[in-house]
Design brief:
The chain has 323 residues and is α/β, with parallel strands linked by helices. Helix content is 39%, strand content 22%.
């Protein structure tokens, strides 16, 4: 996807709730694009978010539109429809139920896959060069279903997951991956984790940290802690999504862990990939221990079974897309 020089790239955000509005705000603050569409099944909420966000457009002079409502006097907004969102260069899917306290991601899937199907139907036809950023959870299964339903190539659908620990060094100096999933079934790849090129396991601080299992558990449970205290997470997600959009529009070709379809595993799972203007480029497969690879294979099998079950129950008629 390389937008024409004469036409500003358009970003559509599907879902005007806590996450969708946070994503829009983060994008405005970073001036990642100048043309935004916001769509929500509750058109009043979408319009209210646009009115609120318009007050921040002096930072970036962006244009924001919502469906079903006319332009606001004095602001550079336009009306938008669901079909307009399907013609955006980047489509950010945030619509979905939030994860309830104590609810597993598998339980959440039953509620959010219906929303995904409804949205993809409403925004059709989808622009063939559009890049779909799947933010709704559980992201791996929804990415799998979106791949079948949208008709877009696998390289144009993605999402980010990440983790970190505390070694007394700057966070961006730690190269440690969580692959497969983000949550209960994630696989922490300790065997290839490094700091400044040195294996993580050689650091005394690492040995003093509780245990690998407890560190991984803390990463897994972080989202549940956030949900318990405030109901939903938004800021970290918004920061990540704004960075992804910027990387795509600027063709940065950065390497980040994203949920993508892998031919090797025949499943959608989180792996390090190169991200640029055409979406996902090369996929990188980290070296893993036998135990880590076994855990990942077990996750993949479970992932495939769930995807096949939902495809069988609902059917997989692809959404129309437009050249």
């Amino acid at each position: 996807m390389t937008p024409q020089a004469s036409q500003a790239p358009k970003v559509a955000i599907i879902g005007a709730g806590i996450v969708g509005s946070a994503v829009a705000f983060a994008c405005l603050m970073r001036s990642v694009a100048s043309d935004f569409l916001i769509y929500d099944i509750d058109t009043s909420v979408a319009h209210g978010q646009v009115l609120d966000l318009e007050d921040a457009t002096f930072i970036s002079s962006a244009t924001i539109a919502s469906a079903a409502y006319p332009s606001s006097p004095g602001y550079s907004t336009t009306t938008a429809t669901a079909q307009d969102c399907g013609q955006a260069d980047i489509i950010v899917m945030t619509a979905g139920h939030r994860q309830a306290p104590g609810e597993s991601r598998d339980e959440l899937l039953h509620r959010n896959e219906l929303i995904l199907r409804d949205v993809l139907t409403k925004i059709a036809p989808i622009k063939s060069t559009a890049i779909l950023l799947m933010v709704a959870n559980p992201v791996n299964i929804l990415t799998c279903l979106a791949q079948k339903l949208s008709g877009l190539p696998p390289s144009q659908k993605t999402f980010l997951t990440s983790s970190n620990g505390d070694l007394g060094v700057a966070e961006n100096c730690v190269n440690a991956l969580v692959v497969g999933d983000h949550g209960d079934k994630q696989v922490a790849v300790w065997s290839s984790a490094t700091v400044a090129g040195q294996p993580l396991t050689t650091f005394a601080e690492f040995e003093q940290m509780n245990t690998q299992a407890e560190i991984a558990s803390a990463t897994t449970n972080r989202i549940y802690d956030i949900i318990e205290h405030k109901g939903a997470s938004a800021y970290g997600i918004a920061a990540v999504v704004s960075e992804l959009i910027l990387a795509i529009l600027a063709n940065k070709r950065i390497v980040v862990p994203l949920t993508v379809y892998s031919d090797r595993y025949d499943a959608c799972l989180s792996l390090p990939v190169m991200l640029g203007s055409r979406g996902v480029g090369q996929i990188f497969y980290p070296q893993m221990s036998t135990k880590e690879e076994q855990s990942l294979q077990e996750y993949v099998k479970a992932n495939q079974a769930i995807c096949e079950r939902y495809q069988h129950i609902r059917g997989t008629n692809s959404t129309e897309y437009e050249e």
